[in-house]
Design goal:
With 187 residues, this protein is of the alpha+beta class. The protein has a domain of 72 residues. Helix content is 59%, strand content 11%. It is built from three helices and four strands, in the order ααββββα. The protein is rod-shaped.
Length: 187
């Protein structure tokens, strides 16, 4: 059943004028539509916020992992550097101990040929370039108990030559102290 609209009512409806009841209905519909749109925007905004929070958390975790990895590499590098440094120190200590042992052994060889071995004094001991020859100055007492004064000596496992040795005059030139000192690089 259709209701007839008066020309006056039709003009109001055509002009956009609403009756108070229709106006309330239109307002309620508008509020509902705004609420739905706001809810959709809120849901979209909440989803965007959640996505941003997830991306921030992922970036934070990646940064933590990168920092941990960087620290581990730095620690490994530092340990390797320290181990290499300690190995070099150990090699140098070993070389020094070997040189000291060689010097002590060669000093004992020199001491063994002296009349009074306990009186031996040594100064400026050094090993020649090859590390097998001791070049030194020594002083010791003779048979009368008098110190002779410092004299140079060249000592190795195969050679023992003393400066101002009385036998030097009778030896062949290549066996004299000066030749041996020059050949070994001592003096």
């Amino acid at each position: 059943m259709r209701r007839e609209v008066s020309p006056h009512e039709g003009a109001d409806v055509a002009a956009g004028a609403l009756s108070p009841g229709r106006w309330l209905l239109a307002a309620a519909v508008f509020v509902v539509l705004l609420t739905i749109a706001a809810c959709d925007r809120a849901k979209t905004r909440a989803q965007e916020d959640a996505a941003i929070a997830a991306a921030v958390e992922k970036a934070r975790l990646e940064d933590q992992e990168a920092d941990r990895s960087l620290r581990e590499r730095a620690i490994a590098h530092e340990l390797a550097r320290r181990e290499a440094e300690q190995a070099e120190i150990d090699r140098e200590t070993m070389r020094l101990e070997e040189r000291q042992a060689a010097m002590a052994r060669l000093e004992e060889r020199l001491r063994a040929v002296l009349v009074d071995p306990s009186s031996m004094q040594i100064r400026n001991p050094r090993l020649s370039g090859d590390g097998a020859t001791l070049c030194t100055e020594f002083n010791a007492r003779n048979k009368q108990g008098v110190y002779l004064g410092f004299r140079r000596a060249v000592v190795s496992d195969t050679v023992l030559s003393l400066e101002q040795d009385p036998d030097d005059n009778y030896r062949e030139p290549q066996h004299r102290f000066a030749e041996i000192a020059r050949a070994t690089g001592c003096y």
